[in-house]
Amino acid sequence: MPPASPPASRTALIAGFAAIYLIWGSTYLGIRIVVETVPAFLMASVRFLVAGLIVAAFIALTRGFKATAKQWWDNALIGGFLCLGGNGLVSWAEEKVPSGIATLIISAGPVFIVLMDWAVHARFKDGKRGNKPTALTFVGLALGCVGLAILVGPDVMANGVGRLDPWRVLGLFGATFFWGVGMIIMRYVRDPAEPFTASGIQMICGSGWLLVASVATGEFSRFNPGAISSRSVIAWTYLVLCGSLIGFSTFTWLMKHSTPAKVSTYAYVNPIVAVFLGWLVLHEAVNPRIFGAAAIIIAGVAIITVAKTIKPVARPVPGSAEKPAPPTPAAEPLTQDSR
């Protein structure tokens, strides 16, 4: 196997998390605007195709685009889970589901991701793969859920959910699950491609999966290019440049340098960003409840971020005559990047 990549600097990690927190917090609004006049799967397909080709072209011109057949296959699979199963289903659901309710459902993502990462840990008992969460991680998850319920719960209760399309709601739950599966595969795939090369492949192949979904659902028969609004074009351009080129590529990089539990905290912070943008851009009112919910969410994210994953301790095999060797005094403690 190739040597592990060096650990990322603290500054780079902070910048990476800031990118997915802030940028992806604004993409829900962008998606909602685009799907007003462009079918969801078709919109997402063209979005990821353009972004993926830009990434691939940049890499090809600067250092040469290199990926093995296995890396293409692995990232084509990951792109299907992330672009179609995750983003595509969210875009499709937001055609009929209000963004507040969509945000609340999608916020269940970190719980799915932590549990799946735990399942990977249980599967590979040698401790080389997967992360076993600590009690603090679950405390952080619980706080995040409470904060989100306070943030968007009253609006959901006021607007009601009885008239929601059940298939779109089911699609949102599916999006959280498929996105989590893609994250776990990305984190633990063997012989991975370089992160930005991987993101380019994922977006290009994900575009193909989305196009298949668009054809299968009959979007082309309903699509009227002349009806595309100027604000949908502007929002789509923002999704390509910021949501995909910066946000998606940064997310892929973070998955190689952090844990799924920490990266998934974007799902808790994004609603705060969305509320703030609503206040800043649309002059929507904020109140003490929103500030309180934001404080609870930030506390939950902080706990997840500082919580350490449990590393297995080597134990002697039952019946073995040998005793485990005492720890070497000069040995360095294990870190997240030492696996």
TL;DR?
The protein is an all-alpha fold. The protein has 13 helices and no strands.
Model description:
With 339 residues, the chain is mostly helical. Helix content is 70%, strand content 0%. The protein contains 13 helices and no strands. The longest helix is centred in the C-terminal third of the chain and has 28 residues, at 230-257.
Q: What are its keywords?
A:
339 residues; mainly alpha; 0% strand; disordered C terminus
H-E order: HHHHHHHHHHHHH
Give the biggest beta sheet. none
Strand content: under 5%
The multimeric state of the shown protein is single chain
User: What's the alpha carbon Rg, rounded to whole Å?
Assistant: 21 Å
Strand-pairing-aware structural class: mainly alpha
Mean pLDDT: 78
Low-confidence blocks of residues: 309-317, 328-339
How far the N terminus sits from the C terminus, by CA atoms, comes to 13 Å
Number of helices: 13
Helix content: 55-70%
Coarse shape: globular
Total number of β-strand segments? Answer: 0
Give the SSE map:
Elements: H1 10-34, H2 40-62, H3 69-93, H4 99-106, H5 109-123, H6 135-159, H7 166-188, H8 195-216, H9 219-222, H10 230-257, H11 260-263, H12 266-281, H13 288-306
